[in-house]
């Protein structure tokens, strides 16, 4: 019997720096603010973990790195498991902020907590290995990679990220990514999680759009993008939702008053157990006091309007839904 499951996807979850300091004064679940129950209610939860989980290591100084993010795993893993995080992307520009020992601690902390990960590892082979998660009978595989911070790239014998220069016209890029997709096998749902592009942008460049469509053509069912700190528009291509950038979810960052990097969404996908994405539900959020909260009515209205405007190029169909937005995907043709 075909059933549906609800998968939650978030933007950057940065638990370091002031968030880490604030958490010393409050219980681990407090970082989820008024969104805690909503997050915990999802059948599966997929995040980009924008920090390392460790109390060890020295700040990376081999190249210029202005920001270094690290959270104490004694509370951070409790917070992640409290809301049922199923998977964490590590292909980003902060997992080596406190050098290799802190990355290795992160891998151990996630493994001990039963949280799958991809996009970083002790070697390049491990960093590029897809993650596999079973959510209420739905087999999900995730391939993860980044074009950020090439000095953090894993090698044959050193820890780091799954790094690639993203270019759909470059044979090396195409073959590297195609190999990762092939390694994922034939799951019910194949997710690509990409940490790509510069900060503080409102839309993807054309080569990212072409690359996203290439991924779908290669078999990706859902694209989970992040890096810009600002959510981008959504495209539905051949039945696959493309979330070019999911923005920020938890952090301590300075707020740009025009781009509003403190505002975003929890992206909930309704998926059948045979891998059909039926719809997306966008739940408006806001970051306050180093925690994520449900947006107020005025904040939610801004989020909805910004998402509609940023999706204009993609002709995406939005419907109002419980203070947020609904995107009918209906890849099975039922809608």
* Helix-and-strand structural type: alpha/beta
Strand content: 25-35%
Low-confidence stretches: 331-335
Shape descriptor reads: globular
Task: Please give the count of helices.
Answer: 8
Provide the CATH topology.
Purple Acid Phosphatase, chain A, domain 2
Biggest sheet layout: 10 strands, mixed
CA distance, first residue to last residue: 20 Å
- Mean pLDDT, rounded to whole units? 97
CATH class: Alpha Beta
Q: State the CATH superfamily name.
A: Metallo-dependent phosphatases
**Rounded Rg:** 18 Å
Integer tally of domains: 1
Helix fraction bin:
10-25%
Q: H/E series, N to C? A: EHHEEEHEHEEHEEEHEHEEEEEEEHEE
Protein name: CapA family protein
Family: Belongs to the CapA family.
Organism: Halopelagius longus
Pfam family, one: PGA_cap
């Amino acid at each position: 019997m075909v059933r549906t499951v609800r998968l939650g996807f978030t933007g950057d979850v940065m638990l370091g720096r002031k968030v880490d300091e604030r958490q010393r004064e409050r219980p681990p679940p407090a970082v989820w603010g008024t969104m805690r129950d909503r997050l915990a209610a999802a059948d599966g939860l997929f995040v980009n973990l924008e920090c390392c989980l460790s109390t060890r290591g020295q700040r990376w100084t081999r190249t210029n790195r202005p920001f270094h993010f690290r959270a104490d795993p004694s509370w951070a893993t409790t917070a992640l498991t409290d809301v049922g995080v199923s998977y964490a992307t590590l292909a980003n520009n902060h997992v080596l902020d406190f050098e290799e020992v802190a990355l290795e601690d992160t891998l151990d902390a996630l493994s001990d907590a039963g949280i799958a990960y991809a996009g970083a590892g002790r070697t390049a082979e491990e960093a590029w290995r897809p993650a596999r998660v079973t959510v209420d009978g739905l087999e999900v595989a995730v391939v993860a990679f980044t074009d950020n911070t090439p000095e953090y790239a894993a090698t044959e014998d050193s820890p780091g990220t799954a790094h690639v220069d993203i270019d759909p016209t470059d044979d090396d890029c195409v073959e590297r990514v195609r190999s990762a997709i092939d390694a994922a096998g034939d799951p019910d749902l194949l997710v690509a999680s990409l940490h790509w592009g510069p900060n503080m942008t409102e839309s993807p460049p054309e080569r990212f759009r072409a690359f996203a469509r290439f991924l779908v053509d290669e078999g990706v069912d859902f694209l989970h993008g992040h890096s810009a700190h600002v959510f981008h528009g959504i495209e539905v291509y051949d039945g696959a939702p493309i979330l070019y950038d999911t923005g920020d979810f938890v952090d301590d960052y300075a707020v740009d008053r025009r781009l509003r990097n403190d505002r975003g969404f929890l992206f909930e996908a309704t998926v059948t157990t045979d891998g059909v994405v039926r719809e997306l539900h966008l739940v408006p959020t806001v970051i306050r006091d180093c925690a994520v909260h449900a947006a107020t009515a005025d904040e939610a209205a801004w989020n909805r309007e910004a998402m509609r405007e940023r999706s204009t190029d993609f002709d995406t169909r939005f419907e109002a839904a419980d203070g947020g937005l609904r995107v009918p995907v209906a890849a099975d043709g039922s809608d």
